[in-house]
Automatic annotation (TrEMBL):
InterPro entries: Cyt_P450 (IPR001128), Cyt_P450_CS (IPR017972), Cyt_P450_E_grp-I (IPR002401), Cyt_P450_sf (IPR036396), Cytochrome_P450_Monoox (IPR050196). This is Cytochrome P450. Its cofactor is heme. Keywords: Heme, Iron, Metal-binding, Monooxygenase, Oxidoreductase. It comes from Popillia japonica.
Length: 480
């Protein structure tokens, strides 16, 4: 009997699989499929995080902006670098469903703005959009100052060193910044490097990354039997309990001191309403943790990449420093948002770094309604990978893409060809915040140090959620 049930179930699964593949193969139009192996299809393209970016770049250069890849039999993804299709997919509120990859983050960030389903997302995003208004950004810029001062003191210990990885320093600084601006607390992760909370954030992020590239850990059922499952559960529990404590304390402060300053994102969320109802504690935790997740590693990596590039291009570094001296003078004045806006060359150098080394190399969307667009037809149920790294390295959009040249951004670039912060309605809500944070950190670092190259260091790009150098973001510092 049991055997018969198993056979029936297996037959149903195989039939479902065959029908799905048949539907995709007959309906999908406008995509090229590179030759793959009979058994493993294009699995080898995705098998190593170290080769993923070069593999996908080679494929999109050889086969164009719309490519169909079978990660394995039955798991088809569409690799897209065609700006018109990207505009069609990202530019509409109808296609905002994230694909299964984001589920890996859900234990930590629950159903916050990054991961939630379209219906909830529309309401949440509407409520969140005003939190980065001009006045609020001004407050945030002043809150960056103290953590950046600590960063400079920490970096001073590295002057004269033959070369060191700058990213861990930057990550602790951006963690302090995001905790102060989002939670309203001084975490002091830079001074107290052994804090349980920062260790837990590090642990959870590392486990998400490990799951990305391990079929055993990626599957929710088999993941349960691994050591990482317990470790992640414990770390997430502590992170969420800690956040709950911060929320309780903040509420109490509001009740006892009606005039207490509302400067953090949490303060704003405590007063926000969705469907005329205040947010529950669970929703508040999901939301603030989503901002921590999205706004910590991304900014640190962006600063690290600019420093790395400037170490290799002393002429560009000199121009950036000359501009900062002309806007801020030489007496170490802390920048205002207006000063930051005046630093056009610095902005171009940051943008060109974000093109050259795309911080978030991929975005993905689940297609939950058939798409018909020109000669393209995409049946629902497929995942689209928008390969931002490949888009930014496309010679059609950026001639001579391997050349680092900030002046590309002297004039406006064509829409949907440059998207380090994503695009359309579900783009990065923190991009203005992020840009200001990156500028403030770079200004203070460049005022204090000349960034020198570690000769012979060739970066090994690794595909993580954000771009990484497997062999470290190595630079040298010399006092200025
Ligand atoms: C500075 C470097 C940053 C980069 C390169 C970056 C990049 C991105 C990208 C590409 C997306 C779109 C993801 C997708 O469509 O799947 C995104 C979304 C998001 N980012 Fe950023 N980000 C940065 C900084 C920040 C900061 C500082 C914050 C918070 C303060 C933040 C908060 C968010 C949030 C909440 C979303 C989700 C928006 C939504 O789904 O509606 N980001 N970011």
């Amino acid at each position: 009997m049991l055997f018969a049930i198993v056979v029936v179930l297996l037959t149903i699964l195989i039939l479902q699989f065959v029908v799905k593949q048949y539907r995709i193969n007959t309906q999908l139009k406008g995509f090229v499929s590179p030759p793959g192996s009979l058994l493993l299809r294009h699995f080898n393209v995705f098998s190593s995080e170290n080769d993923l970016i070069p593999n996908l770049l080679e494929i999109s250069r050889k086969y164009g902006g719309r490519v169909k890849l079978d990660v394995f039999h039955g798991t088809t993804v569409l690799l897209v670098t065609d700006k018109d299709l990207i505009c069609h997919v990202l530019g509409t509120k109808q296609i905002v469903l994230k694909d299964a990859f984001y589920d890996l983050c859900k234990k930590w960030i629950g159903q916050g703005v990054i991961t939630c389903k379209p219906e909830k997302w529309t309401k949440t995003r509407k409520m969140l959009n005003p939190v980065f208004n001009v006045q609020q950004l001004q407050t945030y810029v002043t809150l960056f100052e103290n953590p950046i001062k600590i960063l400079i003191e920490k970096l001073k210990c590295e002057t004269g060193n033959d070369g060191f990885d700058v990213l861990p320093y930057l990550s602790l600084c951006t963690l302090d910044i995001i905790c102060e601006t989002v939670l309203g607390i001084k975490l002091n992760a830079q001074k107290n490097t052994d804090l349980q909370y920062s260790r837990d954030i590090h642990t959870v992020t590392s486990i998400i990354l490990r799951r990305l590239f391990s079929p055993l850990k990626r599957n929710d059922v088999t993941f349960r039997f691994t050591e990482d499952y317990q470790i992640e559960a414990e770390a997430v529990r502590r992170i969420r309990n800690f956040t709950q404590q911060v929320i309780d304390e903040r509420r109490l402060k509001k009740e006892t001191d009606a005039k207490s300053k509302k400067s953090s994102l949490l303060d704003i969320l405590l007063e926000a309403k969705i469907d005329d109802k205040p947010m529950t504690d669970e929703e508040l935790i999901d939301e603030v943790q989503s901002f921590l997740f999205a706004g910590h590693d991304t900014s640190a990596t962006s600063v690290g990449l600019v420093l790395y590039i400037l170490s290799k291009h002393q002429d560009i570094q000199d121009k950036v420093v000359k501009e900062l001296e002309s806007v801020l003078g030489t007496d170490n004045k802390y920048p205002t948002p207006t000063d930051l806006n005046e630093m056009k060359y610095l902005e171009m150098a940051i943008k060109e770094t974000m093109r050259y080394y795309t911080v978030a190399p991929f975005l993905s969307r689940m297609i939950d309604e058939d798409i018909s667009f020109g000669d393209i037809f995409i049946p629902k149920g497929l995942s689209i990978i928008v390969f931002l790294y490949g888009l930014h390295m496309n010679p059609e959009y950026f001639p001579n893409p391997e050349k680092f040249d900030p002046t590309r951004f002297e004039k406006e670039v064509t829409p949907y060809t440059f998207m380090p912060f994503g695009g359309g309605p579900r783009n990065c809500i923190g991009q203005r915040f992020g840009m200001m944070e990156i500028k403030c950190m770079l200004i203070e670092i460049l005022r204090n140090f000349r960034i020198l190259e570690v000769s012979g260091h060739i970066p090994q790009l690794t595909a993580m959620i954000v771009l990484r150098f497997k062999n470290g973001m190595m630079i040298k510092l010399e006092p200025r």
